[in-house]
Amino acid sequence: MQKIINNPQTVVDEMIEGVVKAMPETLSPTKNKRVLKYKNAPQKGRVGIVTGGGSGHKPAFVGYVGKNMVDAVAMGELFSSPPAKMFYDAFVAADGGAGVACLYGNYAGDNMNVKMAIEMAEDDDIVVKTVVANDDVPSAPKDKRETRRGVAGEILMWKVGGAKAAMGADLDGVIAAAQKAIDNTRSMGVGLAPCTIPEVGHPNFTIEPGTMEVGIGHHGEPGIAVKPLATAKEMAKEMVDVIVPDLPFVNGDEVVVLVSGLGSTPLLEQYIFFNNVEEELSARGIKIYKSYVGNYFTSLEMNGITLSLMKLDDELKECIDMECGCMGLTQLPK
Amino acid sequence: MQKIINNPQTVVDEMIEGVVKAMPETLSPTKNKRVLKYKNAPQKGRVGIVTGGGSGHKPAFVGYVGKNMVDAVAMGELFSSPPAKMFYDAFVAADGGAGVACLYGNYAGDNMNVKMAIEMAEDDDIVVKTVVANDDVPSAPKDKRETRRGVAGEILMWKVGGAKAAMGADLDGVIAAAQKAIDNTRSMGVGLAPCTIPEVGHPNFTIEPGTMEVGIGHHGEPGIAVKPLATAKEMAKEMVDVIVPDLPFVNGDEVVVLVSGLGSTPLLEQYIFFNNVEEELSARGIKIYKSYVGNYFTSLEMNGITLSLMKLDDELKECIDMECGCMGLTQLPK
Questions:
Q1: Superfamily of A186-312 according to CATH
Q2: What residue of B is the nearest CA neighbor of A78?
Q3: DSSP assignment, residue B320?
Q4: Rounded CA gap, A20 and A110, in Å?
Q5: HSE-up of residue B230 (Cα within 13 Å, Cβ side)
Q6: Using CA atoms, how far apart are residues A257 and A255, in angstroms rounded to an integer?
Q7: Of B79, B107, B13, B149, whose CA–CA distance to B299 is shortest?
Q8: What is the pLDDT of residue A331?
């Protein structure tokens, strides 16, 4: 296990210590060492944005805490949900009196712990409403969309929710925009090599060299097929062919494209893949309004790539265009 | 070879096509398809900043083209210098009449090609001056510092040079600041696993599991020792112990810390390592003014990490603080 760590049991806490020291201009610690907040949160009268989940997906989730993005984050163990108290502490850290939008991914542990945390917050008169991301198309058929997992599309949900809160929308307005963002987003991943959780010491699933797992989840959840390793162009076509009909995205649509490496995928390869995705979308008359290509939502050192598409309308465009600043998704100046 | 590519012979050109499509708000193509420029370059009366080098180090070099950063970049084959004509075309793309600062790394091919390109530019009355980065401490002893390689410290050189040009300094002023930046910077890397060039199809060097190569270059150049794999804390101490005495950095200094993964190193591990670096610097009375932690200068999917430190004065602080915007190093808003 070729890893730069000290103790497999303390990787998350040590990582958080490093994150806090590295970004004092953006992040502040809270009384709960597993909860970090935007240094200017809570902002009085502004809806607070909270997320959380298992660690191991850096820069998600903590990397999306920042200006006009997420206000507080709950950080669980590697690939494990944060307990309810941690979500609750994040609600308290983010609440500026206008309520909290908890925007998170559809996993059993997170659903249970967020629900319990909301009950705890009710006792403090903190109003919390939720949007549950379910953008991962291969994880369930379309008629069971509510059971699909949340993956890299969550980043676009946070971007939209954070921008809407910054514009002064009330809690229902923020929730409606974030819900629209994820309803308009579809994602899919392909895995080429697994990752190893330090405490386990060996990969907890296998991808044979020469093959790829199509539709893999970002915790290594099985995909829809194991196939011979394809070219970037074939992968792009296969993923676009699954994602586009599902919403559907149609000729004339404008979209955000988010390509994320899963950890060890060179950025060089991500741009080659993105180039092929653009060709596939262009051939279908779908226009790219904004692109993100990079390691936005990873799984330790897993090798692979995910594609997320979000269909835009004027409201979503305005949110995507808004200035934001966080380690994971700083907006480029015009 | 688990790679997301189409044709090993065309990875660089396809990557560039993807980069151009992904960032129209920042980058523009030029007549030379291996030269990209900042969309607002050349800027009349402002010194142009040029760099270039072999591809495979994404986001370097093209990722540092942008606002108040690099104006034009020459992109060679994987780990190979761009030919002289490419550097020349980058000079032309960046020249706004105030001359060009070519800020690049100390490799034989780059030295030769930049020199030839400068001769070509002289015929066009384009004045080009250079700074040659040599921040990699383990690559040569201190009394042969001029022979050391340039590595991730180059990013800080570009940041300082770009900021100084944006402030309106003339060519000599930009060159002096960029030279000071690299003179004040020391770097070192540790490798845990090699990378594979697609055209070669297998790793061109070996790092045995359970070992690490201390002082490795980012093309896999041999380091100063192969040792048993250490903890993050031991690695941080070893690297600080090599870097700090070399300048030397002393008690009371303020520094920029730049930690870069080499490609497949999880961000989680990079923050753990950074946490230990901060402890080592703090114990020596060295204060961190600004930190960068991420995949800033990679070598395809190499596993490993580099540490760069830059000693600051007021001029360098002003340059580091200046707003900038490029894919590789967007400044976080205050």
A1: Dihydroxyacetone kinase; domain 2 (3.30.1180.20)
A2: B268
A3: H
A4: 24
A5: 20
A6: 6
A7: B79
A8: 81
Domain ranges of chain A: 16-183, 186-312
Give the residue-averaged pLDDT of A66-73: 98
> Which tokens is B255 given?
């520094």
* Residue B191 pLDDT exceeds 80: yes
Q: What is the ipTM of this complex?
A: 0.97
CATH dotted code for B8-183: 3.40.50.10440
Mean pLDDT of B70-96: 97
Window 49-78 of A, Cβ < 8 Å to B: 55-56, 58-59, 63, 66-67
Pick the CATH number of A16-183 from 3.40.50.10440, 3.30.2130.10, 3.40.50.80, 3.40.920.10: 3.40.50.10440
Q: Is B14 helix (H, G, I), strand (E, B) or coil?
A: helix
Spatial separation of the C-alpha atoms in residues A55 and B72, rounded to whole Å: 38
Q: In CATH, what is the architecture of B185-321?
A: 2-Layer Sandwich (3.30)
* Closest-CA residue to B56 (of B134, B132, B3, B127): B3
- Six token digits for residue A261: 């490496």
Contact with chain B for residue A283, Cβ under 8 A: no
Chain B within 8 Å of A331 (Cβ-Cβ)? Answer: yes
Is the distance from CB of A106 to CB of A132 less than 8 angstroms? yes
